[in-house]
Write a structure and sequence with these properties.
The chain has helices spanning 24-35, 61-81, 109-116, 125-128; strands at 94-108, 131-143, 149-157, 163-172, 178-188, 195-203, 213-218, 222-223. The chain is an alpha+beta fold. It has a domain at 94-223: Coagulation Factor XIII, Chain A, domain 1 (Distorted Sandwich), CATH 2.70.50.60.
């Protein structure tokens, strides 16, 4: 139990109490005064400032085109200096360009074999002496390395476009994927003196029983000559 001396009997001996602002107007005035105080944060002048954050800028279409053109130019120069580094196309794909088509007549079959650097084999002198017309043309073949490209010719009447004669000629076999060469086609001489032309067709490498044309062209017209008896 507490003793009587522990409880103060004189109000003057009690500790002072904190006074609250009970008047509403007075409380609002104090709050407003606190809110209106400006707080200013100062920075030490010796403290280094933060660098600005870099912005990521997307390249423009012109800049992208310039880079692509530069890369293409460099690769083209490398392939020109070092052709072996050029990527080779697939063996079954490629193109054939024909130019400078000419007609030579009369040309014997033996002379035609000489132009192709082919041996006469067991052909008789009479057969080698046959007169005809030789079509000379320049080819540029891209791709088809080591593939056989069959070649056929048709002798046509220029007046009616009817086929007078036809046969399969030599087979073109490119040794590289970028090859230019002069080729020849020989057809027997027409027995009349009319106008004729030769249609030459180069086919894709054989696949199955269907021959797919790769390139075809017509020779200039020429006048037929009588065949030797």
């Amino acid at each position: 139990m507490s003793s009587a001396k522990d409880v103060p009997t004189d109000p003057a001996d009690a500790p002072p109490r904190k006074r609250r602002l009970r008047h509403p107007l007075l409380r609002r005035t104090v709050t407003t005064a606190v809110e209106n105080v400006d707080v200013e944060i100062t920075r030490d002048p010796n403290e280094p400032s933060e660098p600005p954050k870099p912005r990521l800028r997307l390249p423009t279409v012109g800049q992208i085109s310039a880079v692509v053109g530069l890369i293409a130019g460099v690769l083209g120069l490398v392939f020109l200096v070092f052709p072996a580094l050029r990527p080779e196309p697939a063996p079954d794909t490629g193109t054939v360009e024909v130019s400078d088509v000419r007609v030579r007549q009369p040309v014997s079959f033996g002379r035609y074999l000489q132009r192709l650097k082919l041996p006469p084999g067991e052909l008789t002198p009479e057969f080698l002496a046959r007169r005809g017309v030789m079509i000379e043309f320049q080819t540029r073949i891209e791709g088809f390395k080591g593939k056989q490209l069959p070649l056929r010719w048709e002798l046509n009447d220029a007046a009616t476009n009817d086929v007078v004669d036809e046969d399969q000629a030599v087979t073109i076999k490119p040794s590289t994927n970028n090859e230019g060469r002069t080729w020849f086609v020989w057809a027997p001489a027409p027995e009349t003196g009319g106008k004729y032309y030769v249609t030459v067709t180069i086919y894709q490498p054989p696949k199955g029983e269907v021959d797919v044309p790769l390139e075809a062209f017509d020779s200039p017209e020429f006048t037929g000559i009588a065949a030797a008896p």
